[in-house]
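Hi V.,

Quick status before I head out on leave. The structure for the redesign project is tokenized and pasted below; the design run finished overnight.
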């Protein structure tokens, strides 16, 4: 039987757990109706605003810490976050729900009188809260935290929190109800003390709670944000505020650095890790910044997919890409980001992982899919790709793979433009078409007799056509260029050339149920497909499925080996946690 308060009572509710805040919403609605306008002085409203603002504080730090182009040199633990950790910390915000409900109980109870008539700000309250934080919250948390690291409490209540290998701001909220109640106590007593002494204010509640969350999420951010020079110039400061390195040492070694925010209490308790400050200096100076052996040079597909990145929402980026309705309000922000990238940005690092001990990274050209079809943008895109290749060459990267439209034949000849322009490149520039073709070919049923191929004269289309004709599968190659078709046909062995057929209209495929799509199809073009047709895709952006009587495949993808480390985002999961 599980120990008491070791699991959340609403664990089975899933996303419906947020309905627990429904009574607060109902109270606000009632007061709104009674007052004929927004109840700005309502504590029910303040609690809901605080719930949102506190969640956004953790989200802000999460986004910042995962903007690798800004933070990679100062990451405490260089590894990425994998799917197992994402799943493990999925309900990280349970503590916010609990504390909001406790706040609702306090507002409605007799313990804190005078809440209805508070001033906006009273500086005395801040002084009292700071004194109580240092005199009560810090020592209570320190000793309680040390107790949680002893048997049997550690295995019952605290081991789950330490099971995540890489700290993230969301890790700060992940834990059992016992841990959440401890945090509620050390956060709430300074506030309660200020209120009981008659110095409470609305502003104090906001400042204290948001500052508390800000420091917690900063410590768990896994990114050093305070220069070691600050501590060298002001040595006493190192005992008053912890750092992400300081917290990470505790998280990994589990026998040191137990403080809440102030390392002074670890000094007094004899649990200060002597490596804390020297390691902090080394990490801030870039100790963990490594050179990748492989770089995948991608680009943004469209505005909605630009929000499906690890530094936006982890709960969305770790699932297969879909146009989630929850992202629609952020569309204007993403659109503004697109314009800024177009004008100001250069290729940047998006994610990294390790495969069999080797560091792999994904860089992104700051261009969206539609921009690749604007003639005036061609030169600028190639310039961005060229700069990325030269940068990778200087760094010592071994292989750089051009993704999707970055290897477009019409853009740069599949990358040959850069190889010919820079013949002394040490980095190997590849396009991955062979693997893409292999994935497409593997999806085609073995009993297929004929296929319809668009994008037929591209490098990828050529490879697919030449392979299928050897299997005695009729390939209807859609192209207006007889010259390019005949060139490909002559590459096939004479006995198989008859299986390659040039067509110039979509009507020619109206009886074919296997379409290999290497060029975008409009609804009008899709209507020529027979009912029951399956569209295999190797086109970017992918086509939109307009036909309900047909099926549409995903873009080509392969499962990574099980020993891959640090992959926590994806675009095409077949099953949750498998790519």
């Amino acid at each position: 039987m599980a120990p008491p308060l070791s699991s959340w009572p609403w664990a089975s509710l899933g996303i419906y757990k947020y309905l627990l805040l429904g009574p607060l919403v109902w109270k606000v609605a009632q007061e709104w109706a009674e007052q004929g306008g927004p109840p700005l002085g309502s504590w029910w409203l303040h609690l809901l605003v605080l719930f949102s603002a506190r969640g956004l504080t953790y989200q802000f730090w999460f986004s910042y810490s995962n903007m690798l182009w800004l933070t990679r040199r100062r990451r405490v633990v260089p590894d990425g976050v994998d799917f197992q950790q994402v799943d493990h910390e999925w309900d990280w915000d349970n503590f916010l729900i609990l504390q909001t409900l406790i706040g609702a109980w306090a507002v409605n109870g007799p313990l804190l009188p005078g809440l209805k008539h508070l001033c906006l700000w009273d500086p005395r309250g801040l002084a009292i809260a700071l004194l109580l934080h240092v005199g009560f919250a810090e020592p209570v948390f320190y000793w309680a935290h040390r107790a949680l690291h002893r048997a049997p409490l550690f295995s019952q209540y605290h081991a789950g929190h330490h099971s995540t290998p890489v700290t993230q701001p969301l890790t700060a909220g992940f834990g059992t109800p016992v841990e959440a109640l401890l945090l509620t106590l050390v956060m709430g007593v300074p506030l309660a003390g200020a209120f009981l002494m008659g110095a409470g204010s609305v502003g104090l509640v906001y400042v204290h709670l948001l500052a508390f969350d800000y420091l917690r999420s900063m410590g768990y951010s896994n990114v050093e944000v305070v220069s070691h020079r600050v501590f060298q110039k002001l040595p006493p400061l190192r005992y008053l505020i912890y750092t992400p390195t300081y917290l990470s040492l505790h998280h990994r070694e589990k026998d040191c650095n137990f403080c809440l925010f102030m390392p002074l209490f670890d000094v007094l308790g004899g649990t200060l890790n002597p490596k804390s400050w020297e390691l902090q200096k080394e990490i801030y100076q870039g100790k963990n910044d490594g050179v990748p052996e492989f770089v995948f040079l991608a680009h943004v597909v469209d505005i909605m997919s630009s929000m499906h990145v690890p530094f936006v929402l982890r709960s969305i980026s770790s699932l297969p890409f879909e146009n989630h309705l929850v992202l629609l309000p952020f569309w204007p922000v993403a659109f503004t980001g697109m314009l800024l990238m177009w004008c100001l940005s250069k290729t940047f690092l998006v994610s990294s992982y390790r495969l069999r001990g080797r560091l792999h990274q994904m860089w992104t050209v700051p261009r969206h899919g539609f921009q690749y079809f604007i003639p005036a943008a061609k030169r600028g895109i190639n310039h961005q790709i060229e700069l990325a290749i030269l940068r990778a060459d200087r760094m010592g990267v071994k292989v750089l793979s051009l993704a999707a439209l970055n290897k477009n034949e019409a853009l740069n000849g599949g990358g040959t433009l850069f190889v010919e322009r820079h013949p002394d490149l040490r980095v190997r520039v590849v396009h991955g078409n062979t693997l893409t073709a292999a994935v497409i070919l593997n999806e085609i049923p073995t009993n297929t007799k004929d296929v319809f191929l668009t994008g037929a004269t591209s490098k990828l289309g050529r490879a697919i056509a030449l392979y299928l004709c050897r299997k005695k599968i009729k390939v209807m190659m859609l192209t207006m260029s007889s010259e390019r078709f005949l060139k490909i046909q002559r590459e096939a062995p004479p006995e198989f050339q008859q299986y390659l057929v040039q067509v110039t209209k979509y009507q020619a495929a109206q009886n074919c149920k296997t379409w290999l799509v290497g060029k975008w199809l409009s609804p009008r073009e899709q209507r020529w497909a027979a009912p029951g047709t399956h569209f295999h895709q190797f086109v970017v952006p992918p086509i939109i499925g307009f036909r309900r009587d047909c099926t549409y495949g995903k873009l080509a993808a392969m499962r990574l080996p099980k020993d891959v480390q640090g992959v926590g985002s994806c675009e095409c999961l077949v099953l949750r946690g498998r790519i």
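Above is the designed sequence. Residues 123-148 form the longest helix (26 residues).

G. will cover questions while I'm gone.

Best,
W.
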